[in-house]
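Notes continue from the previous slide.

Worked example: a multi-chain complex. Inputs as given:
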Amino acid sequence: MGVLSPELLELAEAIKTRYPAGRERSAVMPLLYLVQSVEGSLTREGLREVAGLLGLTTAEVEAVATFYTMLRTRRTGTHVVSVCTNLSCALRGANEVFEVAHGAAGIAHGEETSEDGLITIHEEECLGACDAAPVVQIDFANHDRVDPERMRELVAALVAGEIPAPSRGTAPVDFRHASRILAGAEEPS
Amino acid sequence: MSKPVTRVLTANWDDQSVFGIDGYIAKGGYEGLRRALSMTPAELIDLVKVSGLRGRGGAGFPTGVKWSFVPQDTGKPTYVVANFDESEPGTFNNREIVEREPHRFLEGMAIAAYAVGSHKAFIYCRGEFLWPGQVLDAAIREAYSKGVFGDSMLGGGHALEVVLHRGAGSYICGEETALLSSLEGYRGQPRLRPPFPAVEGLYESPTVINNVETLATVPSILVNGAEWFAKTGTEKSPGTKIFSVSGKVERPGNYEVPMGTPLRQLLEEHAGGVLGGRRLKAWTPGGSSTPMLTDEHLDVPLDFESVAAAGSLLGTGAIIVMDETDCIVEATRRLVQFYAHESCGKCTPCREGTWWVSRVLSRIELGHGRPEDLPLLDDLGRNILFKAFCALADGAVSPIQSSLKFFRDEYVQHIEERRCPFTGKGPGVHGAAEPEGVVVGA
Amino acid sequence: MVALTVDGKEITVPKGTLVIRAAEQLGIEIPRFCEHPFLSPIGACRQCYVEIEGQRKLFTSCTTEVAPGMAVKTQNTSDEARRGQVANLEFLLLNHPLDCPICDRGGECPLQDQAFAFGPGESRYKEPKRTFPKPVVLSPLVNLDRERCVLCTRCTRFCDEIGGDRFLELFARGADERVSIAAGEDFRSPFSGNTVQICPVGALTSVTYRFVARPFDLSKADSVCGHCSAGCNVTLNARRGEIVRVLARDEVEVNDAWICDKGRYAFRHADLPARITTPLIRERGLEPASFGEVFDRIAAWSKGAPVAFLAGGRLLDEDAYALSKLARVAFDTNDVDHRRTFHGGQAEEVAAAAPMETTYRAVERAKVILLAGLDAEQEVPILHLRIRKAARAGARVFVIGPRRTRLWDLAEHHLCLPEHQTYVLEKIHDGDAPEGSFEARVATALREGGGEAVVLAGERLAEHPLAADVALSVAHRYGARFALVPRRAGDRGALRAGVHPALLPGGRRVAAEDERGEVEALWASVPAEPGRSTRQILQACADREIGVLFLVGVDPVRDFPDATLAERALSNVGHVVVQSLELGALAVYAAAFLPAAAWAEREGSATDWEGRAQRIAPVRPSVGVARPDWEILAEIARAMGRDLGFASIDDVRAEAATLLAPREVSPRVTAWTGTGKPQRLGDMTLFTYPLLVDEGRLSEGASELKAALGEEAFVEINPEDAEKHGVADGGRALVRTVAGEAELPVRVTEHVAAGALFVPFNQPGLAANTLLSGGFSTAASIAPASSTASVPEVEPAGVA
């Protein structure tokens, strides 16, 4: 029994058809998102399954997966909090926001993910929302103008099992859900 | 001379009705496409050429000329790829275009497809744009249901299929050939040119890659004419441009002004001036990859030629503003770390050069600088500039060279005082050891 | 042609030539790492910068094509270029560890050499270097020291473009970028060793060579690989007389720059304890003797008794010629054969008479390639790479056989039973197969390909009556080139030399008086009746009709596809004389042993599948009193009172040359009425061939190779057949043939034709020749091993 259920396998085949015949390799990224949406990160089995679906070697798939920031082969929390610390956000205090986030989530220095596996916090590069600096994404949903106090509130909400409302759009339920959306597996609401 | 048009792309941004296709059409949307379909592709390309529209993604290449490079009758399908990978630090105009009026961009893409004979278009949307991607997904479905996309665009006979493809977090995938590599399912590393994408791009087939803002500009040219477009802006940089202003300003945001508007006007009339009334210290005209300029350059007109003459580049028109309280060394360090982090690793000067410079700058910033560091940085900048496989490395060199040019004394101060004069961090103060880890790699 | 200057020197080169190549032709060396003449340009390392007059930026000479009137300035005449190169080397060495004292590459390292010649004297880098755990074991053959890697991507490009085994890839990005395999998926490719040789630093190293020697310790000799008929050019390296390494030598006409892992890593067999380096005679047991004593015995045994000669695939051309002459001149017999099972017919004659009709180049340039009965990757690996090269250039490749080969990503395979291959070829020949069928597609492709098509028939095809000639006819019909491809290194040379009951040197037929006469002009006499084939000779031995059987570099008990017959033959024959490097299982049968010199210890020529003869040179003197085969055979002649006329190897070559000049083979009308509706051998057909890495004698001692690529014996079966017979993947099954039975692990796969069972010829756990009755395929039955139901007896349905 692989990572993808029969239903998701059907979806995987449909994803491949987005691309011209003979060019299904293009589907490697959405399929990696799909597998990530099931397991919360990319496991060895997940990588192998994508390789099998596309007639590639596992190494070829892993080569692609490890190139990108949003495809995670490391241990990942239920929620991924991205704090932009690039220049525009740093100028508006993002470094402190990042430190505060780490502390609020109880993540050890040098680590990314909380012990209980709830939250991963990492620094991000420019998220293209500099008008609302400092920018934080929770499972890739944008939160504008996050100061240290707001950051504490956001983390507290996650810890309490709530999903804070983002500044635009609707928030994914968690990182898995976000991956599913990114695979193009969800109808837009 | 008539008053220059100032709001074209952003004209409807206060009107929420244009978000959906019905509201967009009600305000005249897709009229440009209708007109395009009544012309021959050759006439259409000519129109865009005459307008003088230049790409808004950073390179500033004339759009009509780019379209004309696509060979017909190769027996291979032609592709249009919209570059929505917007990742240049400080840039956020593509995002807002899509969030507020997605159909303006889609219309431009459809016109481009017709012009070059393409029946399949891909939108490469950066992964972090979760919501904008969903917006596009819905807008594309709307467009299909209204007969804009599909077997016959607006009944004009030209078929167009549109596919949304999401990235997964990589700045280099905004580079044309790296984007194609990523879209094909490979690592996002740039490819050799020749062959050029126009001839052998996506799937070894003729391909046109355009920036979202560039495409969003096209419908207005169809509706109002090439001459109208050329009347705004400057002779060599016609039209309006959305400048993304961020950093130490009162009102960060996207502001559409005619090309050639000086920074001072943009800053004071639109962005509310420097935050807290402070003094402008440094700014980028086109995002972090363009050399910094200073308050000496407040009156530089923001167009391709003038900015180049001032020693920088217009790039994406992302204005990042720093004031007198900001440490240039820290800013430069953070930017070079960005490039090191995003370097694809393919070529030696970028991969090793950004690694090296990051480490040197970290040391200097935290008070562990050495006297030989500055001539070293000068030399490294020269050794990296134009020596790498693609322009990412050149982007890394911009902050290095420009900060050393205008703020060398700040570097000297860090080295001599063995601490950062702005944050106070340094070995003398905390007894901190030399910095160890520098974040590189994904 | 394009005229340009490099450093002021003029040169004219073909359009499309890279600047770096043009410079090389002028003797100007531009430093580089990622560039390799057989890999696609990538421009990654940025080391090969040159200045081009009129251009603002520097250009990488490895990605820039020449243009008319271009004025190129290398580091020799351009300060800009030189500074760029110096800076680049400083960058490359940034994170490079100071491993030289312990790195295998030291002394023959492009990074060392180029840093010394083109780089800065010192580095200004005074920061911590990025480190990786090391070494990373990529496979039992290849280690990776990541810190040394300069990310030139030669290895990953090789795997992608040449080998097609994409196990090595780049992971991560930026300074974190690293070469890697997917965890748990070893670098399991028969070509992996090539990446070690092309790695420009000591990042990829061979496990067999780790810490073994420095280049200045080594004696070197140019040679040709003796593992198969590919004819790969190699360099042997020996340290204090022991062979420690084999490297590929560049030869664009043969192996490009590659060898397979067997050729690279199986080099120990001549140094194993089992090697015997003195003559032996059986008294109470086998005891050391002198050559003279052995020759006297041979003369005595042969007096008035029929004598026969069997040879293997180990002989060099001169040995084969000497053997061919010895049998006829000193023993008045045509009972001499090197083949295992062959119905070569006219195809064989053509191969014997006309060398170089079809070459590697022809394959590389072909627009259409048809393979029948040949698994090139396992049998002649470098030919497999050439076929891949042709396919990448757009050639259409078709494969007929019972098992899918690893051209599966580039070729259309038609799986059919071995006994049906002839029928498929006939349909292609006749060109009237139903539209849309495989045969119709191939016929159309061949018709359109014309002179740029190649038909390659493996020796296993030739064991079916008429099959080789049908394949030859297919080629003739469509104007395509043809080659009969043997497996073993000495096969083509032996055929050409006439180590064959019915063919004399140059493919001259024994039975044709005028052709025989041409040989008799040099040899004095040749018996007029064709002799017996290997199988017939063994049968005659078993029937006690032979007095002395010479086994020259062959062990029929291991090699002949009927182990039972071989054993009976050796038991019943009068005397067995073994001439080889070791005895192995023949010890119990041998009456005498003559020690032969290994290829690494002597001069000689080896003829590859194309018919190309290539010289080898020794890397060390013969061990003990071992002597080249041709010398021993000449002495045997003398002991029989005859003189072959060979005082030196030059004598052998000179005489052979006169008989081996290319000859026309008069085309005979090969009329056949068709083999008709394909007959099946039985319920199931068992077929076998040797895999690349097996228990063959030349691979003995190659423990790392076997750990990486070796497999235990197994049986492959199609899913439908598996279900029908109740065997499951991973389970065990009892396979039974007329000759014997074996219990084997089962692999269910679609890659085997319906009705067929594949068993590898010689893997640990099964010597498949114990299941065979004279050919490489036979009727068989299969049932689950645990089944208590009796395994059905095998009823052969047709001619085996």
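Summary box: Chain A has a mean pLDDT of 95. The helical segments of chain A are 6-16, 28-39, 44-54, 58-65, 87-91, 94-104, 148-159, 175-182.
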